[in-house]
Structure formats: structure tokens, C-alpha cells
Design brief:
By secondary structure, the protein is of the alpha+beta class. It folds into two domains: 114 residues, ATP-grasp fold, A domain (Dna Ligase, domain 1, 2-Layer Sandwich), CATH 3.30.1490; 114 residues, D-amino Acid Aminotransferase, Chain A, domain 1, CATH 3.30.470. The chain is 34% helix and 27% strand. The chain starts with a helix and ends with a strand. Bound molecules: adenosine-5'-diphosphate and magnesium ion.
Amino acid sequence: MSSDLVRRIINNAKEEGRYKLLEHEAYDVLRVYGLPVPNAGLARSAEEAVKLSESVGYPVVLKVVSPDIVHKSDVGGVIVGLNSPSEVREAFNKIFKNVGERAPNAKVYGVLVQEMVPNGLEVIVGSTRDPTFGPLILFGLGGIFVEVLRDVSFRIVPLTRYDAETMIGEIKSAKILEGYRGQAPRDKKALVDILLKLSRFVEDVSEVKDVDLNPIMLYEVGRGAKIADARIILG
Ligand code: ADP
Ligand code: MG
């Protein structure tokens, strides 16, 4: 185990009987491994959310934080593009209202106030543990590419740089990364870096069962990438 912070977060989740890290815990863990996570903090009241928005910097995104909710947007638990204290207050209350109606039994820890990251090409990087091969890393493009077309590639952990580079090139929609219809080519170096760091993480921390970074915003060449949503499930 590479860090006390990672250990502490995982032990704390276990003690609370949780198998899912809360989103801000997931970012804290991923940051230790050098992954590009957004600024974020947990708010328990609307006023706390306003304070955090100032330190995170407008515009912000608010998201419900609950170990019982897997798809936050399905229950009205994500509101993006908030530009002022009054919008943040309103969104905070709206999220509690939505979740109260659509997931009344969910235990809600609070609301995540997160930096709104610029739009990019949405990609997905994940990890799961195969009973035979051990941890695997998955890569695909976001939205319909993964959900409908199942256009993904896999590699066994630990990944080499060559593994990371070739798994990016082998999805059917790989050309999209090169730029198309006036879109700029994407920062594949940043993507390789994410794949290698995630490999390192799941190799190090054997309690991690699944990781889902969905979406990661991938920017133009030289501009890097930013994770916009992270889910970490413990075994
Ligand atoms: P879900 O649990 O529904 O997957 P997400 O955290 O992925 O919730 O949020 C839903 C969508 O909102 C994302 O797919 C992304 O398009 C957008 N989004 C979420 N967080 C951010 C952010 N920090 N900056 C910009 N867009 C975001
Ligand atoms: Mg998501």
C-alpha cells in the first residue's frame, strides 16, 4: 500500500460497512496516484455548498453523495453549470428534493461541490477483477460507443506503456481520437498516462474490485484530460 491516506479512506469505508467509496473519497485516492481529478469538496448544507463553490471556483457542478445511488443523474442528483451563490443554493435544495422523491431510501451524506470541467471528448477508463486473470483495465469512448456498441479494449494488469498505447488504437472508433469533421486530435499521451496510473493503483490496492472513470474529458493534444466522475467499488 503506497499511502496512509489511501489506507485510511479504505478502512473507514469498511468500518462503515460500505463497499463503495464516496465520490470525494475516490478523488482523494486517485489523486495519490497522480490521476487528474477535479477540485471538489463535500457540503452538508446549502451555505457550506456556497462557501465551497468559492474555493473550488465558479462554474461548479453539484452532485448527490450516497453509497446507495449508482447512477446519480437518473435520480436528478447532478446539476451542472452553476454560476452564482443563489444558483448553488437552489441546486442544493433541488438535489435533496429530487433524491427524496426518486430514491427515498438512499442514505445521503451530502452534496459534492465540484469544479465544472470544460467539455472534451468523453472517454471511459475502468478496471475490474477477473477470477482467472486478476485485474484488467478497460478503455472505450463515452456515451453510445461503450453503452450501445460495446466498443472497448482490455489489458491485463500490470500494463506496459506498449499495452496502453495499443489498447487505445484497437477500439473500432479509434479514428475519432485523431480528429474528424473539424474536431482536433486528442491528447493520447494524457490517456496513456491515465491507463498506466490506474494500472498501478489497482495493482497496489488489492481491495479495489471495480473502478469506473466515466466520463473522462479528453482535450486537444497538449491539453491533457480531466476525470469528471469516479466510482470505486471494494471487494
Ligand atoms: P452519473 O452518476 O449519472 O454517471 P456523473 O457524475 O457522470 O453522474 O454526471 C453526469 C454527467 O454530467 C457526466 O456524464 C458529464 O457529462 C456531466 N458532468 C459531471 N461532472 C461534471 C464536471 N465536473 N464538469 C463537467 N461536466 C460534468
Ligand atoms: Mg458518470
